[in-house]
Model the fold of this input.
Amino acid sequence: MDVGTVRALGSPDGKALLRSLPPYDEAAVFGLRDRLRREGHPADFVAAVLTQQRLRSRAVAKFGEFAGDLLYTPDGLEQASRLEVAATHAGRFYNASLATVHDLGCGIGSDAVAMSALGVTVQGVDIDPVTAAIADTNLRPWPDSRAREGYAEEFEAPRDPLRSRVGVWLDPARRVPGKTGRHGRIKRVFRLDEIRPSWDFVLQVATAVPATGAKLSPSMPQDAIPLGTEAQWTSYAGEVLECAVWWGPLAQQPGRSARILSPGRSPWRSTRRWPSPTRPSPRGRTRSGRGSTSPTAPSPRRACSGP
Ligand SMILES: C[S@@+](CC[C@H](N)C(=O)[O-])C[C@H]1O[C@@H](n2cnc3c(N)ncnc32)[C@H](O)[C@@H]1O
Done:
């Protein structure tokens, strides 16, 4: 898919066509393809439409009834924050009264959409032009929020970010673009020094912009968590999905916390005091090879002491 095709899919005609499609059915794909070709749609556009139909059916698991409102790339969908989790990220920025958030590596814009829906204006950039075009299309209901192709590293912090109510969100890629593993899924990286944009860059941004948040792997090494931040592990339906690190006004309670989300239940939050990040745990090394495991991969039961 190219940027032109994304624009065609996001046009009123493209959206109407996507809306008119029946639910994805593998057995009916060829018949549908032939029908769309007979109606005069170009072959590459038909291929893109059918891909969206397939990805939308997969996206229901992450976005529920909103899955049909968004455009996707396969990588973008796999990496996107699920709706419930994106909403909790967005709530932090909203509660800190931020006006603008720079989403540096915005993907297809799941977090950006959640923030925009709460009235926070998002300026997203993504290194991949098609992904950025998709995020921009997904943000169209909120005209002030935009996404464009660009390097996160080109971000220039405003002189007084707190006064201008500016924050930054980083959800660095933990996948190797274009590389698939044994099961055909995109290859994941586990080491903190392999994420893109880099961890050093995340730290630089957080120094320049107090209201910074970053989503990292749940295997985040405990000794890498910066002092004074809140590191929050989130699980959904029993699977630990991420460790988000929150700086400045986004940290509700500096230290470690766990948030347990389950379908149809109110969230549980635990702020149990966990060992200092500077003290290595005797329990061994993480996959990052940096030593010290944390409650990072908390079993929800262990981490949670009450509602
Ligand atoms: C995990 S995804 C973001 C997902 C997003 N938060 C969401 O919920 O949809 C990370 C994104 O960072 C982008 N990326 C990686 N390195 C980048 C860089 N140096 N500058 C800008 N974007 C980058 C990747 O293309 C990828 O789309």
Q: What stands out?
A: The radius of gyration is 20 Å. The longest strand covers residues 239-246.
